[in-house]
């Protein structure tokens, strides 16, 4: 089966996707999550799509570099990438639909305000306590003037009642979380992650999301938001992260963790896939992985690890 074909299960109307932020080079953990998204799409006959989430942190050239890395690994998305910065009108329309239903309100709180505010009953730690939810119009006008004097604007939040939502995850099982008044648009005018991904996944036909399990608790929020917008439901598969020896997210300070850095140290595409095979627990399988097609055939989703993988960067070319 070639990297551009669907699996024996036949064509599928849905899609999977990889949606990196173009803020720098992809590290080995990002790459593993993206490869698993591709593998799952091919195994189920879905299209594999790419999204450039460039509404916040952007480093020039990163989006192109990330696509080039996957191209070197044998993967080309089935359609041109969707670019979020070109879709502001679409997010505005989604926000307007929620506003028309009375589900949006202005929030004037800073992060410090939220940290120092008492928690709302039955809400999880760090959840927004609803400080601005039921202010009078005169109070809101005073808060708007205060923010204007500071050169800021209010954020826009979704009005909820902290109801618990449960979604089924193919790897983790049920994920349950209360839905707080999440931000839909930040005070600086940037549309928030939860809104944009829900809108974009629906527009692209993405019906299964494969991503790192650090985002697992976002799935109930996104499922709730999609339901409010009348969008099709999504299924989920959250996979364990790759971390450093201290158990934290990989970062530049950890050494050679990006594809470019590993290439300088002598890693080939085959080395990348060999590491993927070992890190995912398939090292004892009879066929050694050296291409994406090997990975598509070799990955058994039911056997994927449930714990984080520690990546120890090589220090020289003799790796």
From TrEMBL:
Record keyword DNA-binding present: no
GO cellular component: cytosol
InterPro entries: aa-tRNA-synth_I_CS, Glu-Q_tRNA(Asp)_Synthase, Glu/Gln-tRNA-synth, Glu/Gln-tRNA-synth_Ib_cat-dom, GluQ/Sye, Rossmann-like_a/b/a_fold
Stored Gene3D superfamilies: HUPs
Membrane spanning residue stretches: none
Record EC number: 6.1.1.17
Listed Polar residues bias regions: 1-10
Domain Glutamyl/glutaminyl-tRNA synthetase class Ib catalytic, first and last residues per copy: 17-267
Gene Ontology molecular function terms on file: ATP binding; glutamate-tRNA ligase activity; zinc ion binding
This protein's record includes keyword Metal-binding: yes
Disordered: annotated span: 1-23
SUPFAM superfamilies registered for this protein in UniProt: Nucleotidylyl transferase
Gene Ontology BP annotations: glutamyl-tRNA aminoacylation; tRNA modification
Family, as annotated: Belongs to the class-I aminoacyl-tRNA synthetase family.
Protein name according to UniProt: Glutamyl-tRNA synthetase
Annotated organism of origin: Brevibacterium marinum
């Amino acid at each position: 089966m070639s990297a551009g074909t669907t699996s024996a299960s036949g064509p599928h109307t849905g899609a999977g996707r990889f949606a990196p932020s173009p803020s720098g080079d992809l590290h080995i953990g990002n790459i593993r999550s993206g490869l698993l998204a591709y593998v799952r799409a091919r195994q189920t006959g879905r299209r594999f799509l790419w999204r450039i989430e460039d509404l916040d942190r952007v480093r020039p050239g990163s989006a192109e570099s990330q696509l080039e890395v996957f191209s070197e690994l044998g993967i080309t998305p089935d359609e041109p990438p969707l670019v979020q910065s070109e879709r502001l009108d679409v997010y505005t329309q989604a926000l307007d639909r929620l506003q028309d239903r009375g589900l949006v309100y202005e929030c004037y709180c800073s992060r410090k305000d939220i940290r120092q505010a008492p928690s709302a009953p039955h809400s999880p730690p760090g959840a927004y306590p609803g400080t601005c939810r039921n202010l009078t119009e005169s109070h809101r006008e005073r808060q708007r003037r205060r923010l204007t004097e500071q050169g800021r604007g209010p954020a826009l939040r979704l009005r909820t009642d902290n109801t618990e939502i449960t979604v089924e995850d193919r790897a983790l099982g049920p994920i349950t979380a209360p839905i707080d008044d999440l931000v839909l648009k930040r005070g600086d005018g940037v549309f928030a992650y939860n809104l944009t991904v829900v809108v974009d996944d629906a527009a692209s036909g993405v019906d299964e999301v494969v991503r790192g399990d650090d985002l697992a608790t976002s799935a109930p929020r996104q499922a709730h938001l999609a339901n409010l917008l009348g969008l099709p439901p999504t299924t989920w598969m959250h996979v364990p992260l790759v971390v450093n020896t201290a158990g934290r997210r990989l970062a530049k300070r950890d050494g050679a963790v990006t594809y470019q850095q590993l290439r300088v140290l002598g890693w080939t595409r085959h080395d990348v896939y060999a590491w993927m095979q070992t890190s995912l627990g398939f090292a004892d399988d009879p066929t050694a992985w050296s291409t994406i097609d090997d990975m598509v055939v070799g990955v058994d989703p039911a056997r994927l690890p449930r714990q984080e993988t520690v990546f120890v960067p090589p220090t020289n070319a003799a790796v």
